[in-house]
């Protein structure tokens, strides 16, 4: 049990290179299954940690048995557990989804991505966090490339902006090291208030650098540009991972660094609130006029990330609860939306919203799950999106910010407009011929299980919000004890 | 007797209460009766996509029932939203372009209304710490008057959208014709009453009708809806559109009864909601039967169906007489109750007279254009619809007559307990000292209007020279057009905004740089975080 | 095709290659007691191959040091590294916990695991650098061919 944190990170890493060895041999076709096995084991290990974490325990692990300020430490607490759970689920489903379509190196990259994600959320060492972040980003850059030629461009764009972000982050980390002489987060939490008194400017600079780099990585307003490109052109399972997991890492690091460590005198709440608001408005407005299905989903992601930030920026316990719950919900919902969009695009070969009209060849289940996902993200009651939106709205109202609450609700309606436009096209009267109909049944059932899991999840966490709140309780307790 | 139950399995930490009292019972039984009729009617009416239609219909009825029986604002809102969305799916059931357009308009407006109600609910929760209807009594004294006023405006505006009160009605005349006829019957008979039910619950729980502003504004909107709905109904050529506009006008009656707020008017309002549910359901089913067997829906194309569809003709006549307020039919009772409650206000009496005559004229048009006159060439082979469609219609017609024959029974057994539930005054309401001849004035005036309308061809927008000259001016004042233009403007603004996508990579890098610099400056100059108090 | 380099360049490069490899392994092996280490040594290892590639031309070098071999070497480097980490767990210590004798300070076989780890990191980085270079050159050749 005590070794679980490192096993969760190291197993996928180990298997990743084993798979890249295997892909050179004739056993190439088993790469996917091996990846599935390792992600499954890692996910089960994460689940095993669950009871202890949710009981309020924190599990620490030091690499090579070097104590805190010297060595690298891992720590699993409520927040990192929540994130790790999301990552495990999404990566597992993505691997299942891509079993048929991909082989070889792809899986090894997905595993590296997974290891990097878990590493980022577990580590207590600032530089190590940067390293894991870089690892996951690099594999994400490569994974964005799909057979479509335009995706290479998208990947390059992502690479440029992403490496700009990590470079800025590294700069910030360097400044911090120069000031504090340590990378360990617990030591930094003690050091930074001391430094703040003598050199506030340096800390502010670090804060600004971190904020910009996190903003780029989680696709906030002025630096969102890679989001629509990468999300829309990546293979379907990678879009799911980008939107559900990779965007969330920026938010995680923000919460970790700014809310649990660098609690300095500067109150960032207002900044975060308005930043999130602008992102939400911007994402919603642009999603309204998109013509490409996956691009629209990408802009919707920007919108939702803005909403999550609003919840954080409200600076109350309720807001944080809503925000983390929405983070979890958004991963489920966007996962199911991207999966069903991928299936729709696969079976029709068309990705413009207008061209989807009158296509009888889309199988029922993707259409249905797209509808359900749309409902969840709009915030229609029995589904989970409603609960989190409601919590955030309540937090906003209790903070006295009526306009924010009204804007959140209005952008829910805007989301209704752009999602229902797609739904209407999907459900419009079919004019199919027999040949087309026969083609349509080619989606293997195993892909439906991914959709089914996510849909079931969003229904369960909508009907039983107590379960979801139980999951995030420890994470919230970390920030608002 | 009041039944209350806590649904523990659902939305657990937030609570969810189901409560059945006399007021809920009225609307619940209306839902159940009309729902049963619609289910039977649909067997023959709906031919395509039954696998989607029936589950949705049953879910729809279920969510409507729970909306009416919810004991707290939260579950009211939740089922309000669920039923709205299922109604959307049912409206777009035919999946034609027109249905999609109507459905979009419906869902956007309803969601707007729902959002407004939701905001009000959150504000109420912030004030009171509870969602229950029974806690609402303290709302008046719980905070600043401006905030309380905002809550009222938000909640009532949301309900207005749902109830189709002018000027927030524009989804209604589009959605009703687009939906399958049984669904239109449910929409008009039950769904739009959710809005009024919400207003009733809310206003009487908070006791805010003692504010004159609330009362007068309700009466004002009600009068506008009554008059404008009746006038617009007169001008329609599409049978179901006519019925839809007439629904707006009838909702005005109910809202007026709520706004006046005496026991008498409240009795009239409740009575009228029941009546309207039944006879408007009946009329929509009749229109559906006609559409089903002729495949036409424009009144000017129809005619002479009395011989071909005798039973439909008779039940339709009953429905038309009932809604026009002819004695011995149900509409007469409720309209008389309502008009007696506003006896003191001269203006409202005029409005009543005009609306009633307009309604009569429009239903004369509806009935005569469809069932009398010469049979057009194409309709010689039309047959009566099947019994499974006729039976619900006959049942509803019989019920309408029953409600007209025994007003005192209904008043004492059904309506008064409900009023006792919500109103603070308790006084008996009796239906007596009524001169049936008082119904004659609107009938005569209505006949006159119909005659004039036919003679001057004002009923037909396409043919009348007067309309061709003035029509464009009239359309300028249409609220629907105004809303559409607002939406188009928003979309145009977003398209303008979309140009940001075309910026080069360098420009985006510049943005990032500017943002970084700005952030450093911001943090430097506001180290204490003045962005937020 | 790329023209052949002059004889001088080729000869110097050929003579320099073993020295560079030796230097690389020096950096790797003395990593824990003097400046250097797995990453630095690996880069020198990779650049020695790059030098050979530039002077001898792609065909001969890629025949001697095959792409697939380098890929295997790279994967084995990492796998062994992680494997040693797991061995630490198996032997009752932490991940990457030291299970070898520490030895005397300043001597080459000392500091427990660090020497081994440096060795495998060096292999991995050397192979990786060469692979990246191969890929870039292939890209370049394809671009010229078009």
UniProtKB/TrEMBL annotation, chain A:
Q: Which GO terms describe its molecular function?
A: NADH dehydrogenase (ubiquinone) activity
Q: Where are the transmembrane segments?
A: 6-27, 34-54, 74-99, 106-123, 157-180, 200-226, 238-259, 271-289, 365-383, 403-424, 445-464
Name any GO cellular component annotation. plasma membrane
Q: How does the record say this protein sits in the membrane?
A: Multi-pass membrane protein
Name the family: Belongs to the CPA3 antiporters (TC 2.A.63) subunit D family.
Please list the residue ranges annotated as the NADH:quinone oxidoreductase/Mrp antiporter transmembrane domain. Answer: 124-407
Q: Which domain of life is it from?
A: Bacteria
Which InterPro entries does the record associate with it? CPA3_Na-H_Antiporter_D (IPR050586), NADH_UbQ_OxRdtase (IPR003918), ND/Mrp_TM (IPR001750)
Q: What is its main location?
A: membrane
Q: Which GO terms describe its biological process?
A: ATP synthesis coupled electron transport
Which species expresses this protein natively? Aerophobetes bacterium
Key words, A-Z? Cell membrane, Membrane, Transmembrane, Transmembrane helix
Q: What is the protein's given name?
A: Proton-conducting membrane transporter
Compartment list: Cell membrane; Membrane
TrEMBL record, chain B:
Name the record gives this protein: NADH:quinone oxidoreductase/Mrp antiporter membrane subunit domain-containing protein
Q: Where is this protein localized, as stated in its record?
A: Cell membrane; Membrane
Question: Which parts pass through the membrane?
Answer: 20-41, 53-70, 106-126, 146-165, 185-204, 216-235, 242-261, 273-291, 311-333, 345-364, 385-406, 505-525
Q: How does the protein associate with the membrane?
A: Multi-pass membrane protein
Q: What is its main location?
A: membrane
Q: GO MF annotations for this entry?
A: NADH dehydrogenase (ubiquinone) activity; oxidoreductase activity
List the record's Gene Ontology CC terms alphabetically: plasma membrane
Organism name? Aerophobetes bacterium
Does the record carry Transmembrane as a key word? yes
Keywords (alphabetical) are:
Cell membrane, Membrane, Oxidoreductase, Transmembrane, Transmembrane helix
Can you give the residue ranges of the NADH:quinone oxidoreductase/Mrp antiporter transmembrane domain?
Answer: 70-342
The processes (GO biological process) annotated in the record are: ATP synthesis coupled electron transport
Nucleotidyltransferase found in the keyword field: no
Annotated NADH-Ubiquinone oxidoreductase (complex I) chain 5 N-terminal domain ranges read: 16-50
Automatic annotation (TrEMBL), chain C:
Which cellular component, as a GO term, is one annotated location? plasma membrane
Q: What is this protein called?
A: Na+/H+ antiporter MnhB subunit-related protein domain-containing protein
PANTHER family named in the record: NA(+)/H(+) ANTIPORTER SUBUNIT B (PTHR33932), NA(+)_H(+) ANTIPORTER SUBUNIT B (PTHR33932:SF4)
Q: Domain of life of the organism in this record?
A: Bacteria
Q: How does it sit in the membrane?
A: Multi-pass membrane protein
Give the record's family classification. Answer: Belongs to the CPA3 antiporters (TC 2.A.63) subunit B family.
Domain Na+/H+ antiporter MnhB subunit-related protein intervals:
8-130
Species source reads: Aerophobetes bacterium
Which parts pass through the membrane? 12-33, 39-58, 70-91, 111-136
One of the Pfam families matching this protein, by short name: MnhB
Question: Which locations, inside or outside the cell, does it occupy?
Answer: Cell membrane
- Could you list this entry's UniProt keywords, alphabetically sorted: Cell membrane, Membrane, Transmembrane, Transmembrane helix
């Amino acid at each position: 049990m005590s070794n679980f944190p490192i096993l969760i990170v190291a197993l996928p890493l180990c298997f990743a290179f084993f798979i890249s060895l295997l892909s050179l041999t004739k056993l190439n076709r088993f790469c996917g299954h091996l990846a599935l096995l390792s992600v499954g084991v890692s996910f089960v290990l994460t689940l095993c940690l669950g009871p202890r974490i949710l009981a309020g325990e924190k599990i620490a692990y030091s690499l090579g048995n070097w104590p805190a300020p010297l060595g690298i430490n891992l720590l699993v607490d409520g927040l990192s557990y929540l994130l790790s759970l999301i990552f495990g689920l999404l990566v597992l489903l993505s691997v299942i989804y891509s079993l048929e379509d991909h082989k070889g190196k792809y899986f090894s990259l997905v595993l590296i991505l997974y290891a990097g994600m878990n590493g980022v959320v577990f580590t207590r060492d600032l530089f190590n966090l940067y390293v894991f972040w870089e690892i996951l980003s690099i594999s994400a850059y490569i994974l964005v490339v799909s057979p479509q030629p335009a995706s290479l461009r998208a990947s390059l764009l992502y690479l440029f902006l992403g490496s700009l972000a990590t470079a800025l982050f590294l700069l910030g980390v360097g400044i911090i090291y120069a000031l504090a002489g340590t990378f360990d987060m617990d030591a930094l939490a003690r050091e930074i208030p001391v430094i703040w008194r003598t050199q506030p400017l340096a800390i502010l600079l670090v804060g600004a650098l971190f904020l910009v780099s996190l903003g780029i990585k989680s696709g906030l307003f002025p630096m969102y540009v890679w989001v629509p490109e990468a999300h829309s052109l990546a293979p379907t399972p990678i879009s799911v991972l980008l939107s559900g997991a990779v965007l969330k890492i920026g938010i995680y690091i923000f919460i970790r660094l700014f809310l649990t460590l660098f609690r300095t005198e500067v109150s960032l709440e207002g900044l975060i609130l308005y930043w999130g608001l602008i992102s939400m408005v911007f994402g919603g407005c642009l999603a309204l006029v998109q013509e490409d299905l996956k691009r629209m989903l990408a802009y919707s992601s920007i919108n939702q990330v803005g909403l999550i930030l609003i919840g954080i920026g409200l600076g109350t316990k309720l807001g944080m609860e809503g925000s983390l719950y929405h983070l979890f919900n958004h991963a489920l919902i966007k996962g199911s939306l991207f999966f069903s969009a991928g299936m729709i695009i696969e079976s029709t070969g068309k990705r413009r919203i207008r061209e989807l009209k009158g296509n009888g060849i889309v199988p029922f289940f993707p259409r249905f799950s797209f509808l359900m996902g749309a409902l969840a993200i709009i915030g229609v009651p029995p589904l989970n999106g409603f609960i989190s939106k409601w919590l955030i709205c309540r937090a906003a109202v209790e903070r006295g910010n009526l306009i924010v609450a009204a804007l959140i609700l209005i952008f829910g309606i805007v989301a209704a407009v752009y999602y229902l436009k797609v739904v209407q096209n999907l459900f419009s009267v079919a004019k199919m011929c027999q040949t087309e109909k026969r083609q349509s049944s080619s989606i293997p059932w195993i892909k439906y299980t991914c959709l089914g899991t996510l849909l079931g999840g969003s229904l369960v966490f909508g009907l039983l919000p107590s379960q979801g709140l139980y999951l995030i309780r420890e994470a919230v307790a970390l920030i608002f004890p | 007797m009041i039944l209350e139950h806590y649904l523990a399995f659902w939305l657990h930490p937030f609570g969810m209460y189901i409560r059945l009292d006399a007021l809920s019972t009225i609307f619940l039984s209306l839902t159940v009766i009309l729902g049963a009729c619609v289910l039977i009617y649909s067997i023959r009416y709906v031919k395509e996509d039954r696998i989607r239609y029936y589950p949705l219909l049953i879910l729809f009825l279920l969510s409507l029932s729970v909306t009416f029986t919810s004991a707290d604002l939260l579950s009211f809102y939740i089922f309000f939203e669920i039923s709205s969305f299922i109604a959307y799916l049912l409206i777009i059931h035919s999946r034609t372009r027109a249905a999609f357009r109507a459905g979009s308009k419906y869902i956007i407006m309803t969601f707007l209304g729902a959002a407004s109600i939701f905001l009000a609910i959150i504000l109420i929760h912030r004030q009171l710490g509870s969602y229950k209807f029974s806690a609402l009594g303290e709302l008046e004294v719980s905070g600043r008057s401006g905030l309380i006023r905002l809550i009222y405006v938000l909640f009532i505006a949301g309900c207005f959208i749902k109830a189709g009160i002018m000027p927030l009605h524009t989804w209604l005349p589009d959605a009703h014709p687009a939906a399958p006829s049984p669904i239109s019957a449910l929409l008009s008979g039950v769904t739009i009453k959710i809005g009024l039910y919400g207003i009733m619950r809310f206003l009487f729980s908070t006791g805010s009708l003692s504010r004159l502003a609330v009362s007068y504004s309700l009466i004002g909107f009600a009068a506008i809806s009554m008059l404008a709905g009746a006038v617009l109904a007169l001008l329609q050529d599409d049978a179901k559109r006519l019925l839809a506009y007439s629904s707006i006008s009838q909702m005005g009656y109910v809202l007026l009864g709520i706004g006046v707020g005496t026991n008498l008017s409240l009795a009239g309002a409740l009575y009228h909601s029941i009546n309207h549910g039944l006879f408007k359901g009946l009329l929509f089913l009749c229109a559906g039967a006609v559409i089903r067997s002729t495949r036409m829906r424009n009144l000017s194309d129809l005619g002479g169906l009395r011989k071909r569809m005798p039973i439909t003709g008779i039940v339709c006549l009953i429905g038309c007489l009932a809604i026009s307020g002819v004695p011995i039919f149900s509409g007469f009772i409720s309209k008389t109750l309502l008009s007696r409650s506003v006896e003191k206000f001269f203006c409202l009496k005029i409005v009543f007279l005009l609306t009633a005559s307009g309604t009569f004229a429009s239903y004369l048009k509806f009935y005569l254009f469809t069932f009398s006159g010469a049979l057009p060439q194409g309709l010689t082979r039309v047959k009566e619809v099947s019994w499974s469609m006729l039976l619900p219609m006959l049942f509803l017609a019989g019920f309408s007559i029953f409600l007209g024959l025994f007003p005192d029974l209904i008043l004492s057994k059904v309506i008064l307990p409900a009023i006792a539930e919500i109103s603070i005054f308790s006084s008996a309401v009796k239906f007596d000292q009524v001169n049936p001849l008082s119904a004659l004035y609107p009938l005569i005036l209505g006949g006159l209007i119909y005659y004039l309308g036919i003679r001057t061809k004002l009923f037909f927008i396409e043919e009348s020279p007067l309309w061709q000259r003035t029509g464009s001016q009239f359309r300028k004042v249409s609220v629907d057009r105004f809303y559409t233009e607002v939406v188009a403007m928003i979309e145009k603004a977003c398209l303008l905004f979309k140009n940001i996508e075309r910026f080069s990579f360098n420009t985006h890098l510049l943005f990032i740089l500017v943002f970084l610099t700005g952030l450093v400056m911001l943090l430097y100059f506001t180290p204490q975080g003045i962005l937020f108090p | 095709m790329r023209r052949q380099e002059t004889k001088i360049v080729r000869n110097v490069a050929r003579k320099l290659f073993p020295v560079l490899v030796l230097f690389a392994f020096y950096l790797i092996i003395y990593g824990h007691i003097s400046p250097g280490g797995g990453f630095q040594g690996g880069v020198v290892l990779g650049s020695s191959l790059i030098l050979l590639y530039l002077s001898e031309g792609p065909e001969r070098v890629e025949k001697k040091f095959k792409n697939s071999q380098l890929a295997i070497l790279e994967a084995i480097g990492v796998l062994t590294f992680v494997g040693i980490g797991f061995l630490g767990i198996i032997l009752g210590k932490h991940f990457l916990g030291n299970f070898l004798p520490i030895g005397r300070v300043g001597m080459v076989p000392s500091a427990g695991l660090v020497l081994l780890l440096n060795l495998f990191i060096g292999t991995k980085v050397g192979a990786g650098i060469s692979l990246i270079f191969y890929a870039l050159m292939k890209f370049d050749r394809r671009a010229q061919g078009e």
